[in-house]
Amino acid sequence: MTAASVTTRASAPQRWSWLGRPRMAGSPAVLPAVLGLPVLLWQAVFFAAPLVFLVVMTFWQVKAFRLEPAFVLDNWSRILFSATFQRALVHTFAVAGTTTVLAVALAFPAAYTIAFRLSPRMRDLAVAFLVVPVFSSYMLRIYAWQIVLSPEGMVNALLGGIGIEPLPLLGGAFSLQVGLLTLTLPIAVLILVFAMAGIDRTLIEAAENLGCRRARVIAHVIAPSVRPAIMLSATTSFLLAFGDYISPLFMTGSKPPTLSILIVDTVKSGSQWPRASVIGVAMLVMLALVLGIGQWLSSGRTARRGAAR
Amino acid sequence: MRTPFLTGDISRRSFLKASVAAGALAATSRWSPAQADDPKVLNYLSWPGNADPYLVEQFEKENGVKIRIKEYVGGDQMLAVINQSPPGSFDVVLADAEYMHLLHAADFIEELDPADYPLKDYWPEFQQFPLHWFDGKLYGVMTDFGYLGLSYNTKEFTPKEVASYAALWSDKAKGKVGFFDWYLPSIGSISLANGNRPPFDIDEAHFEAVKQKLFTLKPQASGFYTIADIFSSLTNGRAQLVPGIGEWITLGLRMNGVPVDTVIPEEGGLQWTESLSIVKGTPKRDLARKFIQYTTSPEGQVKMATKVDNKKSIPSIPGWKLLNQTMPKEAEILRMTLTGPNVMDEYKAKKIQFRQLPKQQEISDWNDAWSEFKSL
Amino acid sequence: MNRPLATRLSRLAQYGFLGALFLFIATPMLVIVVFSFDANRFPTIPWGGFSLEWHRAILDDPMIRDAFVNSVLVGLGTAVASTVLGFAAAYIDFRYRFRLKLPFVLLVAVPPAVPATILGMAMLAFLSRLGLFGRLETIMACHVAIATSFSMAIIRLRLNDLSRDLEPAAWNLGASPAAALVHVVLPFCKPALIASFFLSAAVSFDEFLIAWFVGGVHETLPVRILNLLQGQVNPKINAVGTVVLVVSVALVLIAQRFTGVRAGRRTPTS
User: Is this complex scored with an ipTM above 0.95?
Assistant: First the structure.
């Protein structure tokens, strides 16, 4: 997510290497080992190992509704070749793609206003306002949207007040996107705000002094320098929307089901955890691919831009 | 602005100490594994709401114990939990009849002694309820039941319009048919609509026909809802017709002023039952047995029938009698009066079929058909 | 200051757009709070009048109380452990260079990116085989595996501002690397450590899928809400939701107070 990418991005080339420093030669590896091993162990046991086990489980069997170790490929073929899975895959990609485009398109102007049009104090307030929802009960916020959007909900009550027929807001692509944007938009805006706030103002002023109109400044100065951040907020939005379970469930009544919904549905075939795991592993592979492409796009373009100068 | 914690003379060892600070918290009493061995705690795996103080307070007081519930929504969650927990984690499980079948097949529940339970007090139809017996041995005791038919919005549809499942395909219902997101009652209703009796014991050709019939419902579908969403979508009008649910949902809503009702269409309805079983490996067999006895006693049964928001029918005749004595009005609303029409009528009129697992196909065949329908 | 009309209109549009976006983000949170005081049993329009009935009801509900206590315990444990681990990871990333550093950093950074449905299922399947199913400690351990990513990120950002010469100076004065770490680096990171403490508590306080999978009979507050939400419409949801929301918002705001992460730097010298 954000945290992940901020960190890797922030890891500038290290000048200090413990290998070559004489003062630490007595026990060069003790401190890093003491610091690093607990982290390594913890993440290995509670994160990496479960995921590896998930892959192993895709080859297991269910007998008498209990899991049994085995090595069968049947789970894979049964899931990958089923029309249901393929349709859900296409649908999930379409939904997550739409969310990504919407999130970035809405986040960019908002981030621009926050970064360049608000006073520093207001800017901090805006950032605080955006950080809060990232960490506070997404599930409840979706539940609240149901109250707002339902046929007899708040919006329709307001519309009814001015004599407009109730709109079927809940239970379709619109409400699904409302839900997913609730999840992704604050993060997408935050990433872009941080990137834009980091732009050297003198560059913008220089461009303006040269008579550039605002639109040209945005297109030629701001957009290129935040391109990695745009890619980051796009991939983050995609990732969140792709794996989300709550919005498809509560906002559309899982019609049609996304891959996350399909995971839960598949278990219902009599404790079919192995087949559900196949979908899970397939989703992870696709996410890794998308992230890889995103990384490649942002780094590739930056390099080309650098070369062109 | 320096605090001792951060600036004191901290050695490597105390760094490690800090990293087990969480472990220090673990010393407090609550940080113990599931209180599986505590003889004063009955671990209960059940649908939500079944450890409501209204239901269990009396039992807890009488026996000086505490009931700890793990709530599940849907039998598959229940199976997952029981599959993954060490033996002895749970003492009693409340399950729908078809999941009791799975629990038995996977060897998770114990054989019960029929003499321990007041089965003789039940309506004759339920004294030896076939889905709770395997090879002549009892594995679960029925606690409550209900019917599944066609629930509808009474402002939008008349009883006459919904007298048959055909209403689901009507123009009026386009985009307004809500489904309970579980293949069994939903496909079961369609199987009934296709004239299959019993609806779950059908050959391949008939199953294929049911599938095709189901798929034609796609344009009618509003969504596939969890139980909570069934409540809210009936309330807010997203769903105006829902097959495969019953009065256990609509009665509670109606009492809250929502215009909904349930009919058993002419093609028939389904019956669900919940039962209590003792989980294999429990160290508290006696307490578990007492809990089942309490729940099937007249007092326990009356509480089961009258708990908030979830209206169920009970199988115990003394339970009915007590209900009629103490809460005659409730008895009438719940259609459990001993004189005049009551919920046993449909049963006696043979309009009701058991909801059960598919007999001739795999569970996954039915579930996959349901997933396919959802994804169309 | 006389700006051209077009500029003023454009400004107006920008502020208007931003306001609309903020309204969109704020609406669901406001709705939860407002409806928790609604006397109606099912949240519908019109509002049924002011009532504290549901707030009182959650105080009387032992399961909600238990879940709240569990959430606090798990949240505290997660906060402590992930701040410690996050600091270790961030410092290693900051100070050392080794061949497998990228995988190491990724191992800490990636967990929040894995959909919780998948991760919860995997954790349940694996950890139950280690006999770790159904304990509060297991929920905590799994939350730590996720929250450490955020802790590392916050602390790593702070370390960016630590002069690279400070520690070598301490070493030259005879301090051991560990002593320099404790006397120089830790105090410098204090605001970030506090921020990470509260933020990881917030992450844990908000997580429900993993807690549902691995918790067994032990429910945290969000798991209780999930069960309330899926079981049947329960008027207590909004009241519990308000509690959860207030706690998360408080945690995040405290965290933010200490991050020192501002949108842009105000000191031109940096």
Answer: no
pLDDT band per the 50, 70, 90 thresholds, residue C50: confident
Regarding whether B285 and B256 lie in a shared domain, the answer is no
Class level of CATH domain C54-259: mainly alpha
Would you call B69 an interface residue with chain C, using a CB distance cutoff of 8 Å? Answer: yes
Q: What is the CATH number of the domain that holds B246?
A: 3.40.190.10
- Summarize pLDDT for A194-231 with one digit per residue, the tens: 888 878 777 777 877 777 777 777 877 788 888 888 98
What total number of domains does chain B contain?
Answer: 2
Instruction: Determine whether the interchain pair C15/A113 forms a contact, defined as Cβ–Cβ distance below 8 Å.
Output: yes
Distance from CA of C243 to the nearest CA of B (A): 21
B247, B263 in Cβ contact below 8 A?
Answer: no
Q: Using CB atoms, list chains with 3+ pairs below 8 Å to chain C.
A: A, B
Q: What is the mean pLDDT of chain B?
A: 84
C81 band by pLDDT with thresholds 50, 70 and 90: very high
The ranges assigned to domains in chain C are: 54-259
Task: Give the distance from residue C98's alpha carbon to the nearest chain B alpha carbon, in angstroms.
Answer: 22
Identify whether residues B176 and B65 lie together within a single domain. no
Number of CB pairs < 8 Å for B and C?
118
Tens digits of residue pLDDT in B75-132: 887 887 787 777 888 999 999 998 998 899 888 999 999 999 999 999 988 888 888 9
B259 and B280 both lie in a single domain:
no
Residues on chain B touching C186 (C-beta within 8 angstroms) = 6-7, 10
**Rounded Cα gap, residues B79 and B101, in angstroms:** 11
Domain ranges, residue B187: 146-268+353-375
Residues B87 and B187 in one domain: no
The list of chain A residues with pLDDT below 50 reads 1-26, 303-309
Q: Select from B295, B313, B329 the last residue of a domain.
A: B329
Quick count: other Cβ atoms within 10 Å of Cβ A16? 13
B11 found inside a domain: no
Q: Tell me: do B261 and B371 sit in the same domain.
A: yes
**Residue B341, domain member (yes or no):** no
Lowest-confidence segment of A267-276, B138-147, C11-20 by average pLDDT: A267-276
Phi and psi for C169 in degrees, rounded to 5?
A: -60, -45
Subunits adjacent to chain A (3 or more Cβ pairs under 8 Å): B, C
Chain B contact present for C183, CB below 8 A: yes
Chain B residues with CB under 8 Å of C216 CB are 34, 70, 81, 85, 89
Contacts of A287 (CB under 8 A, 6+ apart): A239, A242, A243, C113, C114, C115
- The pLDDT, as a whole number, for residue B35 is 52
Flag whether B1 is in a domain. Answer: no
pLDDT at A272 (0 to 100): 83
The distance of A294 to chain C (nearest Cα, Å) reads 14
Distance (Å, whole) CA A143 – CA A153:
12
| Contact residues for C10 (Cβ-Cβ < 8 A; gap 6+) | A214
Domain assignment present for residue B364? The answer is yes
Integer Cα distance of A78 and A59 in angstroms: 12
- Domains contained in chain A, CATH given: 2-6+68-308 (1.10.3720.10)
